C-alpha cells in the first residue's frame, strides 16, 4: 500500500553496499546500469551529508586470513578468492560515492553488511530506527543486508533505483521478492528518499500483508513500477 512517511533524521542512517570498482570492470561482478545507480546514490549521499544523517559504507573485501574459504565457495585457479580479493585495487569504493573521513567503512567477507559484526551495535548506539539502503547486487548483498537489518530490529527504507544487479530483470524480481516480506519497512525511489533524508514527508510503498506480489514474467515490470 502507498502511505506518506516522515523520518526522524536523528534516528536514521544511510547504508551504501558494495559500490566498488569491480562492479565496473570485473566480468564476474559487472552491475547493470551502474552509472545511473552511482548518480542516484550520490544524490542520497548529498542529502544525508547536508542534513547530518549518519552514513555507513560496506565493501566486500574477500580475505581468507579473516574468513577461511566456505564450503563450496568458488575459487580462483590459484586457490584464492574468485573476486573482490583483498589485494586487488578493484575493491576500492567508486570515487562518485567515496566515503568522507568521518564516515564508517565496513569491510565484509560475505553478502550482508552485518557480517563483519559491528554494524548493528554501531546503529543501536546512535538510536537508529530507519536504515536507508542502496547498492548492489539486489538479490544478493542488498537482500542479505535488508534481512539482517530487519532481524536486528531496524526498519528498512529500500531505495529501488539506487540498487541494481546483473540485469534489469534480476534487479526487479529481487526488489519484488524483498517487498513481499519487508515488514516494518518501505520502498521508494531516489527523489523521495532524498526528501525523507532532508526532513520532508514523502509517499512510499509499505508492506501491509505477507506476499502482496505474486508476480509472473509478464507482470514484473508493472508490479515493480507500482512500488
Brief digest:
By secondary structure, the chain is an alpha/beta fold.
Write up this protein:
By secondary structure, this protein is α/β, with parallel strands linked by helices. The chain has a single domain (2-225), classed as Rossmann fold, CATH 3.40.50. Helix content is 30%, strand content 20%. It contains seven helices and eight strands, in the order ββααββαβαβαβαβα. The chain has helices at residues 22-25, 34-50, 119-125, 138-151, 168-179, 190-197, 220-225; strands at 2-5, 12-17, 54-60, 104-108, 130-136, 155-164, 186-188, 202-205. The strands form two sheets. A six-stranded parallel β-sheet has the order 4-3-2-5-6-7, with helices on both faces. Strands 1-8 form a two-stranded antiparallel sheet. α4 (138-151) links the parallel β5 (130-136) and β6. α4 packs parallel to α5. The model has no long low-confidence stretch (mean pLDDT 97).
Amino acid at each position: 500500500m502507498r502511505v506518506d512517511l516522515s523520518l526522524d533524521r536523528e534516528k536514521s542512517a544511510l547504508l551504501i553496499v558494495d559500490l566498488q570498482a569491480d562492479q565496473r570492470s570485473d566480468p564476474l561482478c559487472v552491475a547493470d546500469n551502474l552509472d545511473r545507480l552511482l548518480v542516484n546514490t550520490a544524490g542520497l549521499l548529498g542529502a544525508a551529508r547536508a542534513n547530518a544523517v549518519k552514513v555507513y559504507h560496506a565493501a566486500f573485501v574477500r580475505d581468507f586470513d579473516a574468513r577461511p574459504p566456505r564450503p563450496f565457495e568458488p575459487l580462483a585457479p590459484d586457490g584464492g578468492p574468485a573476486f573482490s580479493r583483498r589485494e586487488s585495487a578493484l575493491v576500492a569504493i567508486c570515487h562518485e560515492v567515496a566515503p568522507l573521513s568521518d564516515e564508517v567503512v565496513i569491510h565484509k567477507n560475505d553478502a550482508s553488511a552485518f557480517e563483519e559484526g559491528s554494524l548493528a551495535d554501531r546503529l543501536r548506539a546512535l538510536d537508529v530506527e530507519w536504515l536507508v539502503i542502496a547498492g548492489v547486487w539486489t538479490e544478493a548483498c542488498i537482500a542479505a543486508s535488508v534481512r539482517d537489518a530487519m532481524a536486528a530490529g531496524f526498519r528498512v527504507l529500500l531505495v529501488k533505483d539506487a540498487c541494481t544487479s546483473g540485469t534489469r530483470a534480476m534487479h526487479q524480481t529481487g526488489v519484488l521478492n524483498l517487498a513481499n516480506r519487508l515488514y516494518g519497512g518501505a520502498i521508494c525511489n531516489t527523489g523521495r528518499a532524498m526528501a525523507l533524508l532532508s526532513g520532508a514527508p514523502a509517499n512510499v510503498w509499505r508492506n501491509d500483508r505477507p506476499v502482496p506480489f505474486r508476480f509472473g514474467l509478464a507482470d514484473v515490470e508493472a508490479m515493480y513500477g507500482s512500488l
